[in-house]
């Protein structure tokens, strides 16, 4: 299920273990209803299941942020870290944490994927009740700004979960309403807009995939959800319950009903079935990638680009595939005050270059990457965000 609920851009560096570990799934048991089984790694380009990170049978050590100490939870309640009903998951790559919420609870949990320790973030901002399907939190994703965002079924709460020092802070950003053009494809209606999952793009907007296969673009500035289309190429009864962007910039969707993964082109919304797992019950997906990452503004030359634009591994890739580009390029990085903080030459051979450039002691923050040719002509200006 989520039948009871109603139930971006990087090039492929390689389908290796590292890639597998930054694509995560919230997996359920083989039952008609939501029953939590485990969090696990998934290879987002092949659909192959990997390491089981934390399960409903795992020993849980829960630290309460509010009470500043380790607590014992009631495993028979909806309010615990291994609750039966869960449908939200996001990956905080800054801290290598999984963030999730039980569906019938306002509790937020932060699972360290290495130590397996869990932090409980109690909050009085989220208004969730077990009997109100509209209030259930069913969509969650990391935003391009590094914060975690979650939306309830009806769009009446749009949460931002941010970290300030060692504390997590929850803010309600407001009510998301239907764009005037949506018509019968309403974001706030059970049959057309509930359930599913969401992803972020490089402009810090969000795409919500409803369980019915409808896709809505949510503007964080206007707090509106605009219907952009319905996924084609998936089975008629396919319930879309998980969505995340893989390392090739494709959206991968999965179902809680135990079906195959599908790769979806965000422009055409055309889906094609993936190899790999064919019968996992997926309640949510999460990754560190973003839609349209390489499509961000600032390109002066179509076949020259850098990626990622949110940098959490201390390097960027520079790619050139254009016969008109020759000789030595100069890449200069400026901070937002305009100060030159780094410069490096790049050698293009036969119009081709694919090189990793490592940063030297750049602190967290926003920078402008400028690339010029030998004549001084600007080929690319692009903003990046460096994180520690």
Q: How would you explain this protein's 3D organization?
A:
Keywords: Signal. InterPro entries: Secre_tail, Vgb. Pfam families: Por_Secre_tail (PF18962). By secondary structure, the protein is mainly beta. Strand 4 and strand 5 form a beta hairpin.
For the largest beta-sheet, the strand count, sense and barrel status come to: 6 strands, mixed
**Count of helical regions:** 2
- Quantity of strands, as a count: 31
Q: What value does the average pLDDT take?
A: 89
Parts with pLDDT < 50 across at least 5 consecutive residues:
1-20
Radius of gyration: 21 Å
The class by helix and strand makeup works out as mainly beta
Helix content: under 10%
**Within the largest sheet, what's the order of strands?**
5-4-9-8-7-6
Termini distance?
38 Å
Global shape: globular
Strand content: 35-45%
Topology of this protein?
Elements (H helix, E strand, L loop, with lengths): L16 H4 L2 E6 L7 E8 L4 E8 L6 E3 L4 E3 L14 E7 L4 E6 L5 E5 L5 E4 L15 E6 L5 E5 L5 E7 L2 E6 L4 E2 L11 H4 L3 E4 L5 E4 L4 E6 L4 E7 L11 E4 L5 E4 L7 E3 L6 E3 L7 E7 L16 E4 L2 E2 L3 E7 L5 E9 L4 E9 L3 E7 L6 E8 L5 E9 L2
Parallel strand pairs: 4-9, 14-18, 25-31
Antiparallel strand pairs: 1-2, 1-23, 2-3, 4-5, 6-7, 7-8, 8-9, 10-11, 11-12, 12-13, 15-16, 16-17, 17-18, 19-20, 20-21, 21-22, 24-26, 26-29, 27-28, 27-30, 30-31
Give a quick rundown of the structure.
With 388 residues, this protein is mainly β. This is T9SS type A sorting domain-containing protein.
List keywords for this structure.
388 residues, mainly beta, 6-stranded mixed sheet, 5-stranded mixed sheet, 2 helices, 31 strands, 2% helix, disordered N terminus, signal, Secre_tail, T9SS type A sorting domain-containing protein
């Amino acid at each position: 299920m989520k039948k009871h609920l109603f139930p971006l851009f990087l090039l492929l560096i390689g389908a290796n273990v590292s890639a597998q570990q930054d694509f995560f799934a919230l997996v359920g048991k083989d039952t008609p209803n939501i029953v939590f089984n485990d969090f696990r790694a998934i290879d987002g380009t092949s659909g192959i299941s990997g390491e089981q990170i934390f399960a409903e049978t795992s020993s849980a050590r829960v630290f309460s942020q509010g009470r500043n100490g380790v607590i014992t939870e009631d495993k028979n309640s909806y309010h615990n870290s291994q609750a039966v009903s869960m449908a939200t998951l996001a990956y905080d790559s800054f801290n290598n944490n999984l963030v999730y919420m039980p569906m019938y609870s306002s509790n937020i949990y932060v699972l360290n994927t290495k130590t397996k320790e869990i932090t409980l973030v109690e909050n009085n901002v989220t208004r969730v009740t077990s009997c109100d399907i509209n209030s259930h939190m069913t969509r969650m994703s990391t935003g391009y700004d590094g914060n975690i965002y979650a939306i309830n079924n009806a769009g009446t709460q749009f949460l931002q979960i941010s970290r300030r020092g060692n504390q997590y802070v929850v803010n309600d950003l407001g009510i998301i309403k239907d764009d005037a053009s949506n018509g019968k494809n309403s974001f706030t209606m059970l049959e057309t807009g509930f359930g599913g999952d969401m992803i972020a793009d490089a402009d810090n907007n969000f795409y919500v995939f409803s369980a019915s296969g409808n896709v809505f673009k949510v503007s964080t500035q206007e707090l509106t959800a605009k219907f952009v289309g319905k996924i084609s190429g998936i089975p008629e009864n396919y319930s879309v319950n998980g969505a995340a962007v893989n390392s090739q910039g494709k959206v991968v969707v999965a179902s809680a009903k135990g079906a195959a993964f599908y790769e979806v082109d965000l422009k055409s919304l055309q889906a094609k079935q993936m190899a790999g797992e064919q019968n996992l019950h997926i309640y949510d997906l999460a990754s560190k990638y973003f839609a349209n990452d390489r499509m961000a503004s600032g390109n002066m030359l179509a076949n020259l680009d850098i990626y990622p634009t949110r940098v959490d591994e201390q390097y960027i890739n520079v790619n050139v595939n254009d016969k008109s580009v020759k000789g030595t390029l100069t890449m200069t990085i400026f901070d937002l005050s305009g100060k030159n903080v780094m410069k490096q030459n790049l050698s293009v051979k036969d119009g081709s270059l694919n090189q990793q450039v490592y940063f030297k002691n750049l602190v967290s923050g926003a920078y402008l990457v400028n690339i010029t040719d030998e004549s001084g002509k600007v080929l690319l200006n692009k903003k990046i965000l460096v994180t520690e």
